[in-house]
Each structure stands twice: as structure tokens, then as C-alpha cells.
């Protein structure tokens, strides 16, 4: 028995003596005990169990296949079994182990706590090793199951046992050395870890962050492996047992000599022999040995963890027996010392045990397990330069979900670092990309592929709603900017200024004509049609303003209908003037009286008729399928174009087609009249104006179709203004020049002079 095991057995004796000396617990009844040493070997443990259960001094059992530490419980043991150190989750199965109780938590809780610990620090890529025993294999299986639920991937999982061939230990060590995972979770016994760490120390590898189970991470004998600095794990909470240290140190020579276990411990601790017949190289224990100065796990009581489990186990059994043999709560009532106890009675009583000893509660659930409470311990370098065990938090399974885990101290990581190490197979994908799993690898290993245009990513790429667009980082959707030809824009301001300027020019021209209305050049130009033409040109210039600003239901209907009607009115006036020129030339021929057929009434009727046809087309369009405001999502993916939908494309092209038809007809007539013998040839000016008009609108069609967004509106405004300026400049500018700058030519004689 090693020094630590001896401390456990002495703690049991200490608890029994406390109970035997108590006047409240089992008064008048004394508990006894037998101690059998398992020598940390399964066959010896089986032998000791049989000796205990059969009441025999010796029993021989030869079977080399007994390699499971729970075999004695599973097949042979029929008595109540109470354990302070067995943590295998399998022992909670009451179908197989109905008589099993323990004061140490099941590994099922520890496995879940370890998985949450790994998840807490963002480690998704780990290595796993365990003891090839019930403790290690069952504990690791529970951990891997919990880790999978937490989204943790395991690069490798290896098991080993301290008695394995050296090549097996070396292979496990090589797997750790080659691993890409920084974090290694070890669910192993202290003895197994000692063998593995010795092999790793022989050929050090890159630093690892060790996460350990309570069986080894709290073992002070392993703290010498300083390359494990920063190791983190759960341990049984530290405790204080009043009077235990004094009891451990109170060993008389006679007591030591009377016990083979104490004799072995004493001789090993002080390197001497209690027997007088010592060898030449051996020293005799002469009584000068001072156990109070001995540095040994036996005397180390600052980290009482499992020792308290032994202490609580003894008291739990005592309380269960007390509830059976001392049923009355009155302390003056004596207990029945002659009652023959059966294991079932104590078993039933243990299920109801609930008490507190030295501030530590003791109770059991339906599986015979206590409430799982762990300390989070960290291997840190102390002031002396040695690795020390420091408590930095706790885990309490009785607390609500997501509140069981708490850290209340400063942690040290591998190599003494103060920053949390990173252990991932693949770094998180940057914004704008999404995960694509690598073939044949765990889900934590992936490639980062850019998201398609218009999509963002969280865990995977998904498109933004139609009115939204990803930000630059592609991690959130933002409303798309809405675009239209706003009055605040420079382009809109320029177009509006030109439009107003054109209207003012038409009004100014009308004012000049009105002021000189009695002069020959004004009278010869059919002043009534000229004024009507200038009025329609003013409307043409101003109708372009309806295309600027956010489209509304009324503005969409107004802009197209006003444009169509005013331009037809304008072309009708030009057509009327062209016909008048032709008729006037025919009237100069001998015997001709055509002017009476196209006088002012006929001219007015022509303008009204042609304009009415356009009005009728617009009314039908607006009644059946009028233009309406719409959000255009197709032209640009990253912004919304607010525009006027045509409603009926046929209606729109009918309006334009009718204007084009009149313009072509007017152009043909003007061409026919261009060579008339007149010193001021009105037909030539109309020809040029119609040529400009037709060229502008023929260019407008492809430009209108191909221009994106708000520039479609700008092209339409430009076409309106260009054709309007073409008409006013070609038809009225030469006349105004003569009226204002060459008044000597503004005579009937000059106008009637033939070339």
C-alpha cells in the first residue's frame, strides 16, 4: 500500500473512532473494520474481496483474464458495496449494481463538465487519450458523446495502460507529438498518466494544453512534469477534516510495529528497518525518526480531496445503521445492539441518508450517486518556482443549466502563458464566406468559400431580402439605397435650369413677336400659328420638369401624357405652318384659289384634330393601363431604382409613334417646299427643325432602352429639351435676328423680292 492509500485507510479508522466515541451517532455501539490491500492490481483486489465476503484468511483465485475492475461487483458480490473512489458511470446502473453507493461523483457528470469546459474556451479541435480500463474507457465514451453535442471535433482518440508494452506507450506519445490539436483531454488514472508523461518527457514536443480528469490532475506526484504547466481539470473539492492531521501523525512505535502496513510505510519513508537483524547496508530505526517533518503524501493534508470521500462514506454508513438500530430520535433511548442487520435494511436506509458533516452535505440520488460538485484546478508556477495546484473555479451540477460552470480566478495556460491558446482545425471563416466541409474530415475542418453576390453569412450563406443588400463585411443586410433623379442632384438641377431657360426663351420670343406683330415678317409667318407654336414649346420645356423628383402615381401619369400632348400640339402647329407655305406658293400661280380652302379656320381645325387624336390615345392609355411608380430591383443588384413603369408598353409606343408619324409627315412636306423662290424661305427652316427633331428622337430610342436607372429619365428629358430647342432655334431665331438686329430687312419689299 502506498502512502496515499495508507492515508485513506487511516482516515477511515479516524472516522470510525470518532463515531465510536460519539454520544449522538450510534450511542453504545462500536463499529469495527477489516483492511485488505489490493496493491493496485485487479487480481489482488478480487482476492481481497473474496476474503472479505467469505470471512476467510486466504483464498486462491487464478484467472489471468480478470482485467475488469468491476468484475467482483458484477458477478459475485451480494453485500452492500460502498466506494469512495470508483467513478465509472457504469456503476450507476442499478440493474447490474443494485447495492452500490459512492460518495464520489459519477464520471458521467465529470465528462459533461469537461466537454463544457472545452466548449467554454472555444476549443473545437482536440486530441483524446484515456486509460484502457473501465474508468478510462467509460469516462472517455461519456466525454466524446458530450463533446459531440457541444460541436467539438476529436482529431484522435487513443487508449493505453501502464502495463502495455513500451512500443504501445511510444506510439501514443508519437500520436500526441504529431497532432495538430493544441488541446489534449486525458481521462486516465494517475499511474497511467505517469508512464505516458515520462515517455513524453524523454522526447519533448510542441507545447500542449492538457485537460485532465480528477484521477490525475490533482495528484501532487505528477506536478513534477513542468511541461504540463497550465494543465486544467476538475477535482474533488478540497476539504478540512478537523483532527485528522494530528491523528495521522500520532503513531507510536508499538502501533507501527503491530501493523504490517504501518511497518512497511515507516521503513520506506525513513529508509530504515524496524527489525534488529538488519543487513550491512541497512540502517536500524532507532526512534529518532520524526514523522512531523516527513514530506510524504501520507502527511500532506492541505489537499484533502478523496480523503474526505472516505470520511463521508464511513459517516454515511454509520447514519444508515443508526436509522435502523436507533429508530427513535430521543437520545436517551438506547439503540438495539443485538439487532441482526441485513444488507437490504442498510441499503434502504442509505437511500434516505441526508446530513451535513463539517459543512459538507451527504446524500444520494436514485442511482446511489452524490450531487456532483467539482473544483476547477490549474497547474501554476508558484513563488518557489515549482508547479502548484491552484483552485480557479467550480462546477456544480445541481445549479440551473448554463449556470453550473464558474471561473473565479486567474488562469495560467501552457508554457505559463496568460492568453487562452487556440485549438481549432480551421479558423473561423471571415465575413463574406461560408463553410464547405473537407471531404473525409470532421465537421470542424472546412474550407472558406466566398458567399455569392447579394448573400451574407452567419453559419451559412443566405440571400438578403429583396430590398436589402450586404454590407462591405457581408455579415449583415442593410436597406438598399433608393435612386431616382432627385432635384438635389447636379444633373437634375442643370436639366431643370435648362428647362426653365427654354420656357423663358419661348416666352421672350412670343413677347418680341407680339411687340412687332404689325411688321411684315411677323405677319408673313402666320402670327396665329406662331403664337400657338411658342405656347406649345413653352409647355414642352416645362413638361420636362415632371420627370424630376420621386415618381408618384400622379406624376407618372402626368409626365407621359403631358409630354405626348404638348409635342403633338407643337408638331401640329409646325405642320400647319408648312401647309400654309405650300398653299401660299400655289396661290401665286395664275388661276389658283387654294388659299380659300386652307384659311385660318382650316388651320385651327387641323391643329385641333391632330392634337385630339393624341389626347384620345392618352385617355385610352390612362384608363386601361396607366403608368405607375415602381421599384426596379433588376437593373442594379445593390440599389433600388424608383421609376415610372409604363403600365402599357403599347400605349407608350403609340404616343411616341404618333409624334414620330406627324414629324415625318411634316418633314416630307417641308422638304417638298424647301426650294420655293422666297428670300426668307420658311420651308427651309422647318426642314432643318424637323431634321433635328427626327434625329433627336431616333437617337432617343436606343439611348432610352440602354440607359440604366435614373439616366433613363435624364435621356428622356434631354430628348425633350433638344428637340424643343431645335424647333425654336431653327424656326424663330432667324426671324428674331432680323426683327432685332436687321430691321431694314423687315419690309414687305425685301420679303417679296424674288431670287
Task: Provide key terms for this protein.
755 residues, alpha/beta, Rossmann fold, 4 domains, 8-stranded mixed beta sheet, 3-stranded mixed beta sheet, 45% helix, rod-shaped, cell membrane
Brief digest:
With 755 residues, the protein is of the alpha/beta class. Helix content is 45%, strand content 13%.
Question: Any low-confidence stretches, pLDDT <50, length ≥5?
Answer: 57-79
Provide mean pLDDT, rounded: 83
Indicate the multimeric state.
single chain
In the CATH scheme, the class of the largest domain would be Mainly Alpha
Distance between the ends? 141 Å
Total beta-strand segments: 21
Into which percent range does the helicity of residues fall? Answer: 40-55%
Would you tell me which CATH topology of the largest domain applies?
Rhopdopsin 7-helix transmembrane proteins
Indicate the proportion of strand residues: 5-15%
How many distinct helices? 23
Query: Which strands sit side by side, in order, in the main sheet?
Result: 4-3-5-6-7-10-11-12
Rg on CA atoms, Å: 52 Å
Largest sheet: 8 strands, mixed
Which structural category do the helix and sheet elements fall into? alpha/beta
Second CATH tier, the architecture of the largest domain: Up-down Bundle
Counting structural domains, the number is 4
Shape from CA axes? rod-shaped
Name of the CATH superfamily of the largest domain: Rhodopsin 7-helix transmembrane proteins
Protein name: G-protein coupled receptors family 3 profile domain-containing protein
Membrane topology: Multi-pass membrane protein
Subcellular location: Cell membrane
Keywords: Cell membrane, G-protein coupled receptor, Glycoprotein, Membrane, Receptor, Signal, Transducer, Transmembrane, Transmembrane helix
Amino acid at each position: 500500500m502506498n502512502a496515499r492509500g495508507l492515508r485513506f485507510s487511516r482516515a477511515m479508522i479516524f472516522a470510525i473512532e470518532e463515531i465510536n466515541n460519539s454520544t449522538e451517532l450510534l450511542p453504545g455501539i462500536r463499529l469495527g473494520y477489516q483492511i485488505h490491500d489490493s496493491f493496485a492490481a485487479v487480481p489482488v483486489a478480487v482476492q481481497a474481496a473474496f476474503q472479505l465476503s467469505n470471512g476467510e484468511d486466504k483464498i486462491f483465485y487464478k484467472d489471468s483474464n480478470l482485467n475488469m475492475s468491476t468484475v467482483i461487483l458484477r458477478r459475485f458480490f451480494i453485500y452492500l458495496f460502498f466506494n469512495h473512489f470508483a467513478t465509472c458511470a457504469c456503476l450507476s446502473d442499478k440493474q447490474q449494481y443494485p447495492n452500490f453507493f459512492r460518495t464520489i461523483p459519477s464520471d458521467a457528470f465529470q465528462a459533461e463538465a469537461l466537454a463544457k469546459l472545452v466548449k467554454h474556451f472555444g476549443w473545437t479541435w482536440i486530441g483524446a487519450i484515456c486509460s484502457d480500463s473501465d474508468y478510462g474507457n467509460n469516462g472517455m465514451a461519456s466525454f466524446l458523446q458530450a463533446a459531440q453535442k457541444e460541436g467539438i471535433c476529436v482529431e484522435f482518440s487513443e487508449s493505453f495502460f501502464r502495463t502495455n508494452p513500451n512500443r504501445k506507450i511510444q506510439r501514443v506519445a508519437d500520436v500526441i507529438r504529431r497532432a495538430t490539436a493544441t488541446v489534449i483531454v486525458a481521462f486516465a488514472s494517475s499511474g497511467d498518466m505517469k508512464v505516458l508523461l515520462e515517455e513524453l518527457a524523454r522526447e519533448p514536443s510542441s507545447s500542449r494544453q492538457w485537460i485532465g480528469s480528477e484521477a490525475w490532475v490533482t495528484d501532487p506526484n505528477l506536478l513534477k512534469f513542468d511541461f504540463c504547466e497550465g494543465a486544467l481539470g476538475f477535482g474533488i473539492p478540497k476539504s478540512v477534516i478537523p483532527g485528522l492531521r494530528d491523528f495521522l501523525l500520532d503513531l507510536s512505535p508499538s502501533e507501527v510495529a503491530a501493523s504490517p502496513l504501518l511497518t512497511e510505510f515507516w521503513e520506506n519513508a525513513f529508509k530504515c528497518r524496524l527489525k534488529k537483524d538488519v543487513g550491512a547496508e541497512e540502517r536500524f530505526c532507532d526512534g529518532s525518526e520524526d514523522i512531523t517533518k516527513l514530506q510524504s503524501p501520507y502527511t500532506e493534508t492541505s489537499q484533502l480531496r478523496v480523503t474526505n470521500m472516505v470520511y463521508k462514506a464511513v459517516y454515511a454508513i454509520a447514519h444508515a445503521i443508526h436509522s435502523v438500530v436507533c429508530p427513535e430520535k430521543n437520545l436517551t433511548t438506547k439503540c438495539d445492539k443485538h439487532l441482526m442487520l441485513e444488507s437490504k435494511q442498510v441499503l434502504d436506509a442509505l437511500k434516505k441518508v441526508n446530513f451535513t458533516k463539517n459543512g459538507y452535505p451527504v446524500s444520494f440520488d436514485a442511482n446511489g450517486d452524490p450531487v456532483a460538485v467539482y473544483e476547477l484546478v490549474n497547474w501554476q508556477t508558484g513563488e518557489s518556482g515549482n508547479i502548484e495546484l491552484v483552485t480557479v473555479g467550480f462546477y456544480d451540477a445541481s445549479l440551473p443549466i448554463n449556470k453550473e460552470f464558474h471561473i473565479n480566478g486567474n488562469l495560467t495556460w501552457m508554457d505559463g502563458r496568460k492568453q487562452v491558446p487556440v485549438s481549432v482545425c480551421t479558423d473561423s471563416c471571415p465575413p463574406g464566406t461560408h463553410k464547405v466541409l473537407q471531404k473525409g474530415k470532421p465537421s470542424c475542418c472546412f474550407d472558406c468559400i466566398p458567399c455569392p453576390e447579394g448573400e451574407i453569412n452567419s453559419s451559412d450563406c443566405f440571400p438578403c431580402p429583396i430590398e436589402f443588400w450586404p454590407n462591405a463585411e457581408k455579415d449583415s443586410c442593410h436597406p438598399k439605397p433608393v435612386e431616382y433623379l432627385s432635384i438635389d442632384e447636379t444633373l437634375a438641377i442643370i436639366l431643370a435650369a435648362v428647362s426653365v431657360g427654354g420656357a423663358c426663351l419661348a416666352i421672350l420670343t412670343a413677347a418680341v413677336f407680339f411687340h412687332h406683330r404689325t411688321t411684315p415678317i411677323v405677319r408673313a409667318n402666320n402670327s396665329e400659328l406662331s403664337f400657338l407654336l411658342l405656347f406649345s414649346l413653352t409647355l414642352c420645356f416645362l413638361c420636362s420638369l415632371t420627370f424630376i423628383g420621386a415618381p408618384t402615381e400622379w406624376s407618372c401619369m402626368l409626365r407621359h401624357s403631358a409630354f405626348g400632348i404638348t409635342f403633338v400640339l407643337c408638331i401640329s402647329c409646325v405642320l400647319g405652318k408648312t401647309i400654309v407655305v405650300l398653299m401660299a406658293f400655289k396661290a401665286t400661280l395664275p388661276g389658283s384659289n387654294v388659299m380659300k380652302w386652307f384659311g385660318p379656320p382650316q388651320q385651327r381645325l387641323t391643329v385641333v384634330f391632330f392634337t385630339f387624336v393624341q389626347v384620345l390615345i392618352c385617355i385610352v392609355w390612362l384608363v386601361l393601363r396607366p403608368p405607375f411608380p415602381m421599384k426596379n430591383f433588376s437593373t442594379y443588384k445593390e440599389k433600388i431604382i424608383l421609376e415610372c413603369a409604363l403600365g402599357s408598353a403599347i400605349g407608350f409606343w403609340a404616343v411616341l409613334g404618333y409624334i414620330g408619324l406627324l414629324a415625318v409627315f411634316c418633314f416630307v412636306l417641308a422638304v417638298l417646299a424647301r426650294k420655293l423662290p422666297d428670300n426668307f424661305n420658311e420651308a427651309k427652316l422647318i426642314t432643318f427643325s424637323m431634321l433635328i427633331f427626327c434625329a433627336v428622337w431616333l437617337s432617343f430610342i436606343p439611348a432610352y432602352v440602354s440607359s440604366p436607372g435614373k439616366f433613363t429619365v435624364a435621356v428622356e428629358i434631354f430628348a425633350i429639351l433638344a428637340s424643343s430647342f431645335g424647333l425654336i432655334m431653327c424656326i424663330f431665331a432667324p426671324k428674331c435676328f432680323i426683327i432685332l438686329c436687321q430691321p431694314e430687312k423687315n419690309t414687305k419689299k425685301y420679303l417679296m423680292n424674288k431670287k
